[in-house]
């Protein structure tokens, strides 16, 4: 699971987000992603949607568990 702000400036430069995606496979349904306050502050929401394949708020269902 990855939380928001896993890097202080994840969305300041696209290269940073791409690096973290290489490490954590942010689009994987097994990687939970929460947007952090710096992600929101820096904008570039399209980058996050593109890399994660998710909206700013999403629901992920697993057997016996739902994550909001």
The major beta sheet can be summarized as: 2 strands, antiparallel
What is the percent of helical residues? Answer: 25-40%
Q: Label the overall shape.
A: globular
Mean pLDDT: 85
Q: What share of residues are in beta strands?
A: 5-15%
Q: Total strand count, please? A: 2
Distance between the termini: 13 Å
- What radius of gyration results from the CA coordinates? 12 Å
Please state the structural category. mainly alpha
SSE topology sketch:
Elements lengths: L13 H11 L12 H6 L2 H8 L7 E3 L2 E3 L1
Antiparallel strand pairs: 1-2
Helix pairs in contact: 1-3
How would you concisely characterize the structure shown here?
With 68 residues, the chain is mainly alpha-helical. It has 3 helices and 2 strands; from the N terminus they run H-H-H-E-E. It is globular and about 35 Å long.
Q: How would you describe this structure to a colleague?
A:
- Helices cover 37% and strands 9% of the residues.
- The protein is built from 3 helices and 2 strands, in the order αααββ.
- β1 and β2 (65-67) form a beta hairpin.
- A two-stranded antiparallel ribbon has the order 1-2.
- It is globular and about 35 Å long.
- The protein is mainly α and 68 residues long.
- The longest helix is centred in the N-terminal third of the chain and has 11 residues, at 14-24.
